Q: What sequence folds into this?
């Protein structure tokens, strides 16, 4: 996996998503955008999906991995899969994860890995004055 | 020092789905006492703000929790909010008061400035907000406020002080001890590992411990 994808970024709004994608595109690096912890409960899969789609646009030249955090609610994870999201973050017992992972695989989606991905350092853009500058610094540290 | 217990001032997530958020908000408010809810959508257009306000006005109203609109006195009045919160670069205090009326709530962001706080209080603000108190690694605060400003304010002033900025159940104790009347919380509730309702409950348990 390219180093920049080991440097996930938590976005809370379209503005932050756009900033992250813009900088990653400038640097020519793939990027992982993650919703806030448990955001599925209030943000909704459709809104997150659309947010990422608008931020990347039709001509995005870099790989963007969008990870939707469903907290510990398997129902929200299934809803996210139904709305076409491709990477889900879920805190659930192994047996439940296995079932959701199986359903995800049938739709070409997957669960975020429990350890390597889930515990990687992350940049949270909440309340950033200059999100582009923070993303630039963050991605440069991983390059 | 104020003997009144500190209370929770809940700010909405920066982005949300109006179709699902009311239920989540209702669950959070049912988790325990919440003094006020502020509708703050980061980059939503006016229609999205109107739709969200329409969806949550009854949720707050049914529970007797005032709903405060961020930044926009005009939309606060139009959507039936109970008040408006303005920053230093937003509408003037006079415009805000005019929009929501004498009975409405007007709160003012004062960053880390005693001067701005006194100015807002003299104008008639119903509360002043100081922060950000916790510019952690996960948050780049616009200003860095010291807890001492809350001690100073609570000893000298009657107008309530709201503390804001990166506040969680783990780091809130010094702000309560310093005399904050309200803690304004965003991700500390919405992104709490046990969910928003548990976060509200936990905050209230901490408040119940006293100052």
A:
């Amino acid at each position: 996996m390219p180093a920049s994808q080991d440097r996930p970024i938590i976005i809370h709004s379209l503005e932050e998503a756009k900033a992250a994608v813009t900088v990653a595109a400038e640097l020519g690096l793939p990027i992982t955008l993650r919703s806030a912890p448990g955001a599925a409960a209030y943000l909704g899969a459709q809104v997150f999906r659309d947010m990422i789609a608008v931020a990347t646009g039709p001509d995005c030249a870099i790989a963007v991995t969008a990870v939707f955090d469903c907290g510990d609610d398997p129902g929200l994870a299934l809803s996210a899969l139904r709305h076409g999201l491709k990477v889900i973050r879920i805190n659930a017992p192994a047996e439940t994860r296995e079932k959701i992972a199986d359903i995800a695989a049938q739709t070409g989606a997957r669960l975020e890995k429990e350890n390597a991905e889930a515990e990687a350092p992350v940049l949270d853009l909440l309340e950033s004055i200059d999100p582009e500058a923070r993303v630039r610094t963050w991605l440069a540290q991983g390059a | 020092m104020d003997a009144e217990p500190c209370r929770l001032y809940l700010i909405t997530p920066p982005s949300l789905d109006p179709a699902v958020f009311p239920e989540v908000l209702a669950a959070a408010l049912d988790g325990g006492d919440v003094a006020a809810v502020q509708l703050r959508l980061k980059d939503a257009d006016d229609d999205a703000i109107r739709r969200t306000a329409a969806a949550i006005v009854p949720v707050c109203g049914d529970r007797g929790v005032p709903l405060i609109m961020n930044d926009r006195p005009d939309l606060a009045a139009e959507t039936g909010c109970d008040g408006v919160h303005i920053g230093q670069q937003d509408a003037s205090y006079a415009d805000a008061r005019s929009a929501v009326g004498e009975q409405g709530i007007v709160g003012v962001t004062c960053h880390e400035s005693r001067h701005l706080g006194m100015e807002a209080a003299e104008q008639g603000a119903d509360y002043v907000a100081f922060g950000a108190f916790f510019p952690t690694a996960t948050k780049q605060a616009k200003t860095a406020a010291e807890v001492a400003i809350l001690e100073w304010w609570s000893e000298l002033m009657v107008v309530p002080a709201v503390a804001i900025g990166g506040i969680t159940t783990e780091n809130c104790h010094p702000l309560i001890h310093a005399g904050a009347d309200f803690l304004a919380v965003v991700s500390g509730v919405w992104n709490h590992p046990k969910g928003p309702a548990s976060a509200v409950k936990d905050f209230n348990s901490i408040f119940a411990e006293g100052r």
